[in-house]
């Protein structure tokens, strides 16, 4: 059965006001189904990150409706929104956002511990995920002892700890060389298959877009068009 995981209904987002107002998104409509791997592409400033922030519940729309996993985000009180964000949505940023004083294993298990998961279970899950991203041997290393590609894989593992239904990634390969990018792309393609996750990511990379199942082209805060890539994640 067709299941819509995320929906934007005539969503606009304005930053600032008066003379400084910028419309980052203008009446955007988008529907994302379970298991899709959607790549948002378009020139810098076209609104990709703004769209991801709305889906993540980090930001609220100025107009329109954002529905994620059956919840209308505009109507959710802050506590419920945080719960949804932490528990059901995995987020991967370009700059990794790993905590520098923690080891890879500790970084990955952190979302579990914050949600009250038993430490033993969090550790077991973290180890299994690090193995999945090919980093079992790096579990005790801190971010500064790892390459950019390795840190990004740790960030992907961390985003998956709570088995999110929706994974959002902003330029996940932006700081990586082509070999490391390839590994991260493969990882994303595997995610849907192995974890049943739905993926939405913003990218400037042709390779990442080509690995997706649908490319959404944006410009000036609007969706210009879409194309199926024909490859399921
Ligand atoms: N916090 C903010 N305050 C003011 N303006 C903002 C803010 N965030 C984004 N904008 C503006 O909104 C527009 C869309 O920005 P956004 O970051 O969503 O684009 P993007 O497509 O992700 O760009 P990039 O590819 O460079 O990351 C831009 O004009 C940007 O300057």
UniProtKB/TrEMBL annotation:
The keyword Transcription appears for this protein: no
Recorded family membership: Belongs to the ABC transporter superfamily. Macrolide exporter (TC 3.A.1.122) family.
Keywords per UniProt: ATP-binding, Nucleotide-binding, Transport
Protein name: Sulfonate transport system ATP-binding protein
Record-linked CDD domains: ABC_MJ0796_LolCDE_FtsE
InterPro entries the record matches: AAA+_ATPase, ABC_transporter-like_ATP-bd, ABC_transporter-like_CS, ABC_transpr_LolD-like, MacB-like_ATP-bd, P-loop_NTPase
Domain ABC transporter stretches: 6-233
Annotated GO CC locations: membrane protein complex; plasma membrane
Transport listed as a keyword: yes
Recorded GO MF terms: ATP binding; ATP hydrolysis activity; transmembrane transporter activity
PROSITE patterns: ABC_TRANSPORTER_1, ABC_TRANSPORTER_2
């Amino acid at each position: 059965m067709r299941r819509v995981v995320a929906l934007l209904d005539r969503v606009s987002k304005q930053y600032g006001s008066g003379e400084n107002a910028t419309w980052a998104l203008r009446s955007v409509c988008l529907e994302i189904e379970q298991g899709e791997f959607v790549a948002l592409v378009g020139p810098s400033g076209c609104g990709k990150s703004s769209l991801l922030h709305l889906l993540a519940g980090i930001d609220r729309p100025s107009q329109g409706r954002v529905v994620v996993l059956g919840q209308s985000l505009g109507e959710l009180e802050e506590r419920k929104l945080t719960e949804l964000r932490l528990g059901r949505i995995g987020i991967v940023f370009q700059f990794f956002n790993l905590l520098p004083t923690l080891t890879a294993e500790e970084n990955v298990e952190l979302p579990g511990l914050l949600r009250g998961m038993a430490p033993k279970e969090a550790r077991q899950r973290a180890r299994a995920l690090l193995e999945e991203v090919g980093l079992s041997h790096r579990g005790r290393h801190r971010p500064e002892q790892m390459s950019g590609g390795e840190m990004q894989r740790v960030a992907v593992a961390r985003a998956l700890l709570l088995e999110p239904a929706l994974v959002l990634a902003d330029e996940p390969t932006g700081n990586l060389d082509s070999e490391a990018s390839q590994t991260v792309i493969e990882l994303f393609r595997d995610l849907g298959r192995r974890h049943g996750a739905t993926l939405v990511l913003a990218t400037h990379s042709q390779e990442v877009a080509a690995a997706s199942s649908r490319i959404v082209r944006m410009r000036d805060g609007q969706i210009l068009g879409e194309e199926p890539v024909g490859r399921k994640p």
